[in-house]
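thought: user wants a sequence for this fold. calling inverse folding tool.
action: design(structure=
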């Protein structure tokens, strides 16, 4: 019975790592697509390297800050909810310990243990650390590993920035006649990689994920390039 929390801790840690990896891949993917759409759209209107660089840097900073702020708010809310749930569990354990013991045993029964074994395990877990036992089994998180909003914000900022740098560099470094093909090919290759990686993390088929990712990016660049070309042609 003592293996149950050990296994759960490992499973929770693995799930947390996978969630961080997925968030990093999605952040990088957003950086690639949004910045590529922006710089390709500007390239449709002008060949000025200064304009492309300005637009790209502005898009990188705006996107990365937006991602970081959104992630900070989201994870802060999650952390507040976790703290509130722990406070409620702490109060219930203090005011009605027997009912909480029965609840813990019932949760273990629902996980497949027999009534007798679940009762014994619940008593042992409660004697060791009742709050941690309820947090892990009932609430689904480790009270020593609450969500970290600053970590999440920093990771989102970094992931988006790394993704955004690819189309930005691809559009400003080559000579003007190579900018679009280099950017488009670089972006599609990056999207193929992030699509494959996200599918791998989710244990899904890679081919549909890669095709969806590349198709979405290609469509975004085509639309923004068309809009930029039209605006450039009319002199807006």
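)
observation: tool returned 236 residues.
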């Amino acid at each position: 019975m003592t293996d149950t929390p050990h296994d759960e801790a490992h499973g929770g840690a693995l799930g947390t790592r996978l969630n961080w990896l997925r968030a990093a891949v999605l952040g990088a993917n957003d950086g690639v697509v949004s910045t590529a759409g922006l710089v390709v759209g500007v390239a449709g209107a002008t060949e000025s390297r200064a304009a492309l660089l300005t637009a790209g840097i502005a898009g990188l900073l705006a996107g990365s800050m937006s991602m970081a702020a959104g992630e900070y708010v989201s994870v802060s809310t999650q952390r507040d909810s976790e703290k509130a749930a722990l406070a409620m569990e702490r109060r219930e354990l203090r005011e009605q310990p027997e009912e909480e013991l029965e609840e813990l045993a019932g949760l273990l029964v629902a996980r497949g243990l027999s009534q007798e074994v679940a009762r014994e395990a619940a008593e042992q877990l409660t004697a060791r650390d009742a709050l941690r036992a309820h947090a892990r089994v009932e609430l689904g998180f480790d009270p020593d590993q609450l969500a970290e909003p600053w970590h999440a914000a920093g990771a989102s900022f970094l992931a988006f920035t790394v993704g955004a740098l690819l189309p930005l560099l691809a559009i400003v470094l080559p000579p003007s006649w190579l900018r679009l093909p280099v950017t488009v090919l670089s972006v599609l290759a990056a999207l193929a990689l992030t699509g494959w990686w996200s599918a791998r993390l989710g244990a899904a088929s890679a081919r549909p994920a890669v095709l969806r990712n590349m198709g979405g990016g290609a469509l975004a660049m085509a639309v923004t390039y068309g809009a930029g070309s039209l605006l450039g042609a009319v002199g807006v």
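thought: summarizing for user.
answer: Here is the designed sequence. The helical segments are 3-45, 49-95, 97-110, 115-139, 149-172, 179-201, 206-234.
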